[in-house]
Amino acid sequence: MNKATRKTVIAGNWKMNMTPAETTAFINELAPMVAGKDGCDIVLCVPFVDIANAVEAAKGTNIKIGAENVHFKESGAYTGEISAKMLNACGVEYVVIGHSERRQYFGETDQTVNLRTLAAVNAGLTAIVCVGETLEQRELGYTETLLKYQTKMALTNVKPEQLANIIIAYEPVWAIGTGVTATADQADEGNGFVRAAVEEMFGKAAAEAVTVQYGGSMNAKNAAELLSKVNVDGGLIGGASLKTADFTVIVDAAQ
Ligand code: PGA
C-alpha cells in the first residue's frame, strides 16, 4: 500500500467558533461546493453544541461530522464532559484528540490522549490524534524523538485492527494559527517520523496503510504543495476551515 491507496482525509477543526445557526448555514453553503469530490474524505470537527445542527445539515452529503474532544470514561460523575458513546449516538463519526491547544491549556497529557483514543475507537469513532513539537523542541533537535514518543504513547494498547479507525495529525505547535506553515519537506519529514513510529509498533503494512495528516496553517494557497508529499495524506485545518471557499480549494487540492 502507498499514498495512492491510503485514505486522504481533509478535516476542518473549527475550534471555539460558530453557533448552531451558523453551522447550518455553513454546511448548506459548503455541501454543493464539495459535492461529488470523493478523492478524499471530508470531515468537519465542530463544537459540541453545533453537533446536532451539523449532523442534520450534512445528511445526504459527502460531509462527515466530528467532535473536538471526548472524555475517556463511559459515563459517570465527570461534570461538563462528553463520552464517546454520546457522540456516537448523535451521529458523530470522528473526534479530534490531543490537540496542542488541549495539551497547552487544558492539561492534556500523553496518558489522557491514549485513554481518549482507546475510548473513541472502542465506541466505533475514528480518532484524529494530534502530535507535534514546539519550536523549542525542534530547535533542540528533538522533533523525531518527540513525534515518535507521542505517537507511541497515543497508540498504546490499540489493537492492530483498530488502526483503521485512527488518523494521526502531525501538527507542529509553532505552525498552528500562526500563519507560519511548515515547508512541504518539513511536513513530509514529520509525517514520516509518525509513520516510522507506527511501523515500529505495528509493522510495515500497518504503517503504510495509516492516514497521516499535516496541520498548521494549511490554507488555500499552500495545500496543493503540502498534499503532494508522499507522507501527507490530508490535512487538519483550523482557520481555513471557517471559510467555505478556502476549505473547498483545499478539498480540490486533495482530489
Ligand atoms: P490552523 O489550525 O490551520 O488555524 O493553523 C490547525 C489546527 O490547529 O488544527
What would you note in describing this structure?
The structure is a single chain. The protein has 255 residues and is an alpha/beta fold. It has a single domain (9-253), classed as TIM Barrel, CATH 3.20.20. It has helices spanning 20-34, 51-58, 84-89, 100-105, 110-122, 135-139, 143-154, 184-202, 204-209, 223-227, 244-253; strands at residues 9-13, 41-45, 63-67, 94-97, 126-131, 166-170, 211-215, 234-237. Helix 1 (20-34) runs parallel beside helix 2 (51-58), helix 1 packs parallel to helix 11 (244-253) and helix 7 crosses helix 8 (184-202). The two termini are 18 Å apart. 2-phosphoglycolic acid is lined by residues 13, 171, 176-177, 215-218, 236-240.
Quick summary of this structure?
With 255 residues, this protein is α/β, with parallel strands linked by helices. It is built from eleven helices and eight strands.
CATH superfamily: Aldolase class I
Please tell me the total number of domains.
1
Output the helix-strand order.
EHEHEHEHHEHHEHHEHEH
What amount of the residues lies in strands?
Answer: 15-25%
Low-confidence parts, pLDDT < 50 over ≥5 residues? none
Helix count from the secondary structure assignment: 11
Could you estimate the helical fraction of the residues in percent? Answer: 40-55%
Radius of gyration: 17 Å
Terminus-to-terminus distance: 18 Å
Q: What's the overall average pLDDT, rounded?
A: 97
What's the story with the biggest beta sheet?
Answer: 8 strands, parallel, barrel
User: What structural category do the secondary elements indicate?
Assistant: alpha/beta
CATH architecture label name: Alpha-Beta Barrel
In this entry the ligands are: 2-phosphoglycolic acid
Q: What's the overall geometry?
A: globular
- CATH topology term: TIM Barrel
What top-tier CATH class fits best?
Answer: Alpha Beta
Total beta strands: 8
Give the strand order, joined by hyphens, for the main sheet.
Answer: 1-2-3-4-5-6-7-8
